[in-house]
Amino acid sequence: MYAVSFPGKTSLVQSSPEQGPLMFYSGSDRMDKDRVAGSAKEVKGSLKEAAGKRGGDAKLEAEGRGNKAEGKVRNAVGGMKDAVKK
Question: pLDDT > 90: what percent of the chain?
Answer without folding.
Answer: 47
